[in-house]
Amino acid sequence: MKSLAELEKVQQEVYRRINLRTLKGSYTVSVAMDDCGMAAGARQVLLTILDEIDQQGLENIRVVQTGCLGDCKLEPVVEIFQEGHPKTTYIQMTEEKARQIVKSHLVQHQVVEASTIGSNKK
């Protein structure tokens, strides 16, 4: 049986994870979770992004799931939006690339050009 303090800690963690998916933040990270994306590893990319955001102690980042973006050979696809900046589309994501994206793009505010399809205006 868990103590009240342990239960409160679990509750705080659940709320924090929910906030990553619902609150409006300085960044929105969108992961394409359609059939092709899932087959290419999008679920693990999403979980890696969430874990890396947690490890980096980042706040004000919203993580959402989307459907098909129309080009299956580019999956898994992750798009990053920041108000006032062009959308960045990362393609053929892996767990390693996902960690790099969080550290470079979300922490240091530097696009990882080698993993993009190009920056597009919203």
User: Can you summarize the main beta sheet?
Assistant: 5 strands, mixed
Q: Give helix and strand order, one letter per element, not per position.
A: HEHHEEEHE
Look at the structure and give the CATH class.
Answer: Alpha Beta
User: Mean of the pLDDT scores?
Assistant: 85
Please tell me the total number of domains. 1
Structural class: alpha+beta
Write out the strand line-up for the largest beta sheet, numbering strands in chain order: 2-1-3-4-5
CATH superfamily: Glutaredoxin
User: How far from one another are the termini?
Assistant: 50 Å
SS strand fraction: 15-25%
Helix content: 40-55%
**Would you count the extended β strands for me?**
5
Q: What kind of assembly state do the chains in view correspond to?
A: single chain
- Choose one word for the global shape: globular
Named CATH topology: Glutaredoxin
Rg estimate, integer Å: 15 Å
The CATH architecture: 3-Layer(aba) Sandwich
> How many helices in DSSP terms?
4
Q: Uncertain regions: pLDDT < 50 for 5+ in a row?
A: none
What do these coordinates show?
The chain has helices at residues 4-22, 35-40, 42-56, 95-107, and strands at residues 27-32, 61-66, 78-81, 87-90, 116-120. With 122 residues, it is of the alpha+beta class. It has a single domain, classed as Glutaredoxin (3-Layer(aba) Sandwich). The protein starts with a helix and ends with a strand.
